[in-house]
Amino acid sequence: MSDRLLVLVRHGQSEWNLKNLFTGWRDVDLTEQGIKEAREAGRKLKAQGLTFDIAFTSALKRAQRTLGLMLEELGQTNIPVIKDEALNERDYGDLSGLNKDDARAKWGEEQVHIWRRSYDVAPPGGESLKDTLARTLPFYVTDILPRVLRGERVLVAAHGNSLRALIMVLEKLNKESILKREIGTGAPIIYHLGADALVASKLDLAA
């Protein structure tokens, strides 16, 4: 019987998470807290007795470093790692690098809320969640899912919005439900899939 194991983990706290800045594709590192969260995620997976055959991450260092720290804790630093921009965070365009409070002062509370929490309205020069889904889901379907269905045990370290794309499909959520879904930093979500690619079981290891 195949494991068909897929584990999703959002990167640990980043420097700009801490400073309340829109990050998007800006390549910032983890904070000390983020490093602790990543290591703790690895320890939680090890405590579940899990091992992996392959890992996927984005082109951004906060996700890559989170993955590296988890694999250190698992004693699995030698497994193949595939990095791809398809798993990058949503691009916040002109909001990138701005303090969220400053953005509200510039564009207004309501407009910033719409950009952050609507499904298909993009900030200036950036992506909506719908745009993020449009690049993340095809990569999942062509590169990640076939490996899971072949019985490979797959670990994905990515970002809040790119993971929302995967969770939307896995959990069959609509566009309203996925917007409300919060994904904690460094909190693994463990899925076992059936042969039909549907979720057979789910375990959320959020603290």
UniProtKB/TrEMBL annotation:
Pathway: Carbohydrate degradation; glycolysis; pyruvate from D-glyceraldehyde 3-phosphate: step 3/5. Substrate binds at residues 10-17, 23-24, 62, 89-92, 100, 116-117, 160-161. SMART domains: PGAM. The keyword Kinase does not apply. SUPFAM superfamilies: Phosphoglycerate mutase-like. The record marks 159 as: Transition state stabilizer. GO terms for biological process: gluconeogenesis; glycolytic process. Belongs to the phosphoglycerate mutase family. BPG-dependent PGAM subfamily. Homodimer. HAMAP family: PGAM_GpmA. This is 2,3-bisphosphoglycerate-dependent phosphoglycerate mutase. It comes from Pseudolabrys taiwanensis. The lineage of its organism: Bacteria, Pseudomonadati, Pseudomonadota, Alphaproteobacteria, Hyphomicrobiales. The gene is gpmA.
